[in-house]
Design a protein that fits this description.
By secondary structure, this protein is of the alpha/beta class. The protein has 11 helices and 9 strands. Helix 2 crosses helix 3 and helix 4 (145-161) runs antiparallel to helix 7.
Length: 299
């Protein structure tokens, strides 16, 4: 299966890792591998333009669908962890035969996962790009995990069964994503996104991951205290709509602090909504290219 881009073909593969079938959308090139990890509810569709541009530049890159998202196999009993997603990233690299240290790109919640991978698998990671990454200084949850996870599954399954998921799929997509590719959405991508947003397994995976957010943030903070980040290039890229608001300014400050904490470079991508890879794919590719060059110079 292939997806046509402007001048490069995005190929699609399924690899079995950690006991489940994982889908990747991939472009082939000569660079160190670039791994694109989307945030909550994201799939390879959000990375099509970035993948195409990376392929045009001769890069080796793939977008990874976590279980239940995109075209990856659901795992209804699983709850995501930072360590587990770090292992999944490395397992996919192994399955694809990509042995060079990879540049990991994490959007939103996936910023937790790629930073975790860099700390837990330092020999496999050559650089990090955090795209409008989640930031939590003192995370916590009022409701115990043992209650939250069953509630998440029950909520998702009930919403699917009574038709709320199908009824609200388009509205939720527009509310959550907002971003639009520079060339707009082709009709076939709109149809595919509608199909994905109506899958019961998709809603359950997204709801469980959302309800696990505090646990993931706590796990990463513990990992930060126990395991140092290796010396590698890091870029923290914060999205800004270009409209000045108090909460927008606060978000930029949090992202700047994250970059300082990780010893990385801080950039603002504007104008852009949260899904930077959709709104500003060319900026994302330039940022990745800079990290690839920096990582190559350090090797």
């Amino acid at each position: 299966m292939t997806t046509g881009g402007a001048s490069v073909t995005v190929s699609h593969e399924t690899v079995t890792v950690l006991g489940s079938a994982v889908h990747v959308a991939r472009v082939h090139g000569d660079s160190a591998p670039v791994v694109l990890c989307g945030g909550l509810g994201s799939s390879w569709h959000d990375w099509v333009d970035v993948l195409t541009l990376l392929g045009d530049a001769g890069c080796s890159a793939f977008a990874l669908d976590r279980p239940g998202f995109g075209d990856s196999e659901p795992r209804p009993g699983d709850v995501p962890t930072v360590a587990g997603e770090a292992r999944r990233i490395v397992a996919v690299l192994d399955a694809l035969g990509l042995t060079r240290p990879a540049v990991l790109v994490g959007h939103s919640m996936a910023g937790f996962y790629v930073e975790g991978a860099a700390r837990l698998e330092p020999d496999r990671v050559g650089g990090l790009v955090l795209l409008d990454s989640s930031v939590e200084k003192s995370p916590g949850a009022l409701i115990p995990r043992r209650l939250r996870m069953p509630a998440a599954r029950a909520l998702a399954r009930t919403s699917s069964a009574v038709g709320l998921q199908a009824l609200g799929a388009d509205a939720v997509r527009h509310l959550v994503v907002q971003a639009v590719p520079p060339g707009g959405y082709p009709p076939e991508r709109i149809d595919e996104l509608r199909r994905l947003y109506r899958e019961p397994a998709y809603l359950e995976a997204a709801t469980v991951e959302y309800f696990a957010y505090a646990d993931l943030a706590v796990e990463l903070n513990r990992l930060r205290r126990a395991t140092p980040l290796p010396a590698l290039p890091v870029v923290v890229a914060a999205a800004h709509t270009s409209h000045r608001t108090p909460w927008g300014a606060r978000w930029i400050r949090k992202q700047r602090r994250l970059a300082s904490y990780l010893g990385g470079r801080f950039v603002v991508v504007s104008p852009s909504h949260h899904h930077v890879m959709i709104d500003q794919p060319a900026v994302v590719v330039r940022t990745v290219d800079a990290v690839l060059r920096d990582a190559s110079g350090r090797a």
